[in-house]
Amino acid sequence: MFKKINRLLYTRAGRILINGLWRDNPIFCMILGICSSLAITNRVENAIAMGCGVTFCLLATSTIVSTIRNLIPARVRMITYMVIISTFVIIVDQFLKAYFPTISEAMGPYVGLIITNCIIMGRAESFAIKNPVKYSFLDALASGLGYTYTLIILSIIREVLAFGTILRYRIVPLSWTNWVVMAMAPGAFFVLALYLWIMRSIAKLEPRK
Amino acid sequence: MKERILMIIFVIFLGTVSAGLLTSVNHYLRPKIDKNKELKFKSSLLDVFNLSYTKDKIEKIFDENIRIYHKNNFTFYKSLNNEVAFEFSGAGLWGSISGIIALKSDLETIHGLKILHQTETPGLGGRIAEKEFLDQFKNKKIIPKLLIVSATKATKENEVDAITGATMTSKAFEDILNKTIQQYLQILRSELN
User: Which domain range does residue A159 map to?
Assistant: First the structure.
């Protein structure tokens, strides 16, 4: 059993998954998608919704780019990515407004801002444009999940410190003094910096010389 | 040359497909989105009048209990108990804040308050939309003026606690409310005389 898993990890698909989730994690390794991880990690529910939205757009964009990769003229590939990404982001936005109005309201303008998330364009340019569909799909999934779990970790730290709750359930006693700064942008910078430091140390990522 | 033409054809094709997709999605979802907006507005009105409703009966209860009046381009909503509600909106700290306020029939006391739209700092100013904050306004006097004072200092009957860490939003909210209330009260009073 263990051997089997071990062997799976060394197939191409296994390596893609590990890279997205850990070794090439979009946030702590590639330092992409930082704006959104600073902006919406003050509550766990926002982090989950954002993670899902980005993962969906990532999957759709990578799959389509990979499918038509031989048709895209090299000179206009960036525009192609942008058009595809924004199409899907608008669809996600409209879909949430129509079927999940409360979530859409909680996320506010951040749904539309998925367009500016560099991870999606990054995966399209560095992977989907030159790899077959099934690997591009896996790569997008791994990056999306890698992004989502990071957001959730950050938002748990921030929500507990700032409000004493997780998903609005109180988990620390009422006598807890809320760290208001954690709900604001400066708090996000502190938490993200510490997180990057810890994760990069564990993953033994050295700055390139 | 041939490459360029192909490139242009590709871009035009891409744009057409994307625009077509978005148009059809919009066409299909727009009625639902508009309906959601309308239902949200109506249910908010029922909320500020403190009328209970279930999700599938919002429109029926709304039609039975609420009358709509227009005067000088202002719109008022009246309940069967003569409580009056109207919309307010104005600039907050980051974006516009809008909502509905209902006054009791004496036109001096707040009956209820609800925020429809705001883009204040999530978790700080954004808490103006939370029930705990808005519930404080119930039964407060708006005469001579509503005051939002720093947290846990509100004592008088026209004072409400501000949100800690969101002084600017609280101040902006106070201004919007007072301005709108004065405007609408003038019209309401002129109607009474």
Answer: 30-202
A37 falls within a domain: yes
Domain regions of chain B by residue span: 55-192
What total number of domains does chain A contain? 1
- Report the b/e string of B130-158 with b at 16+ CB within 10 A: eeebbebbeebebeeebebbeeeebeeeb
Output the CA torsion sign for A46, A49, A52, A55.
negative
Does A16 fall in a domain? no
Flag whether A54 is in a domain. yes
Instruction: Report the SS3 class of residue A150.
Output: helix
- Please indicate whether, in this complex, the C-beta atoms of B33 and A97 are within 8 angstroms of each other: yes
pLDDT tens column, A5-51: 788 778 888 888 888 888 888 888 888 888 888 888 888 888 888 89
> Closest partner residue to B18 among A83, A99, A101, by Cβ?
A83
Residues paired with B74 in a beta bridge:
B71
Q: What angle do CA B151, B154, B156 make, to 5 degrees?
A: 170
Give chain B positions within 8 Å (CB) of A40. 122
Q: Is B9 on the interface with A (CB under 8 A)?
A: no
Residue of B nearest to A79 (CA): B11
pTM of this structure:
0.77
In a domain, A6, yes or no: no
Pairing of strands B147-149, B159-161: parallel
User: Mean pLDDT per segment of 10 residues, for chain A of length 209 residues?
Assistant: 79 85 84 86 86 93 94 89 93 89 78 88 92 93 94 93 86 83 86 92 75
Q: Cα distance from B20 to chain A (closest Cα, Å)? A: 10
What is the identity of the amino acid at A44?
A: V
